[in-house]
From TrEMBL:
Protein location: Cytoplasm
Xref: InterPro entries: Adenylat/UMP-CMP_kin, Adenylat_kinase_CS, P-loop_NTPase
NCBIfam families the UniProt entry points to: PRK00279.1-3, PRK14527.1, PRK14531.1, PRK14532.1
Keyword Nucleotide-binding: yes
One Pfam family, short name: ADK
Primary site of residence: cytoplasm
Function recorded in the entry: Catalyzes the reversible transfer of the terminal phosphate group between ATP and AMP. Plays an important role in cellular energy homeostasis and in adenine nucleotide metabolism.
The family this protein is said to belong to: Belongs to the adenylate kinase family.
Designated name of the protein: Adenylate kinase
Residues that bind AMP: T32, R37, D58, L59, V60, G86, F87, P88, R89, Q93, R134, R146
Pathway membership: Purine metabolism; AMP biosynthesis via salvage pathway; AMP from ADP: step 1/1
Length: 190
C-alpha cells in the first residue's frame, strides 16, 4: 500500500496533480478541501462548523478535520493506497493521521511538497477565484492570511517528515505535465 501526503501552499497545484497521480498509481484521492465543501454544501453539522473558519480564511480545527478524514478513509477500506491532499496541516494532525493509519496496520509512505514562489501562487489563486466561486480565492488579504497560517502551522511538518526520512520536495512551477513527471519520478522510486 502506498500512502502519499501531497504537501504545499494553497495554489501550489495539489488538487490538479492529485487527479493525475490518483489515476496513474490507482490511489484514492482524499482532499480535505473537497471534504469540507461537500459537508458545507450538504449542511452537515461538521460542515456548518467548518464554514465559520473557512469564511475567515482560517484553518479548520484539527478535531473537525480528523473526523471528516477518518470517515472518508473508512469508506474506502479496500483501497490500494491513498493520496492525502491538504492534510495533515499541523504536526498534531500528522500524529493523529499516523495513529489512525496504525490502527489499520498502514503508514504514510512519503510526503511530497510542491514548492513555488508565493507571488506566483497568489496570482494562480486569484485567477482560480474568477471561476471557482470561492470567496477565499478572490480576496488577496485572505489568501495572504492562509499563507501566514501555513508558514506558522504547516511548514513545521517538513521537519516532522524529514525526521522519518519521508519528505521529498518537487519544483511546482512549470506545465502540469512537467510537474506530474517530477512527482511520478519520486513515487516510482518509493
Amino acid at each position: 500500500m502506498i500512502n502519499i501526503v501531497l504537501f504545499g501552499k494553497p495554489g501550489a497545484g495539489k488538487g490538479t496533480q492529485a487527479e493525475f497521480l490518483r489515476e496513474k498509481f490507482n490511489l484514492v484521492h482524499i482532499s480535505t478541501g473537497d471534504i469540507f465543501r461537500f459537508n458545507i454544501k450538504n449542511e452537515t453539522e461538521l460542515g456548518k462548523q467548518a464554514q465559520v473558519y473557512i469564511h475567515k480564511g482560517d484553518l479548520v480545527p484539527d478535531s473537525l478535520t480528523i473526523q471528516m478524514l477518518e470517515s472518508e478513509v473508512n469508506k474506502n477500506a479496500d483501497a490500494s493506497g491513498f493520496l492525502f491532499d491538504g492534510f495533515p496541516r499541523t504536526e498534531a494532525q500528522a500524529v493523529a493521521l499516523d495513529n489512525f493509519l496504525a490502527t489499520k496496520n498502514w503508514q504514510i509512505t512519503a510526503t511530497i511538497a510542491l514548492d513555488a514562489d508565493d507571488n506566483v501562487l497568489i496570482e494562480r489563486i486569484l485567477e482560480r477565484g474568477k471561476t471557482s466561486g470561492r470567496a477565499d480565492d478572490q480576496d488577496e488579504s485572505k489568501i495572504r492570511n492562509r499563507y501566514e497560517e501555513y508558514n506558522e502551522k504547516t511548514a513545521p511538518l517538513i521537519d516532522f517528515y524529514k525526521q522519518q526520512n519521508k519528505f521529498y520536495s518537487v519544483n511546482g512551477i512549470g506545465t502540469i505535465a512537467e510537474v506530474t513527471e517530477r512527482l511520478s519520478a519520486v513515487i516510482e522510486k518509493l
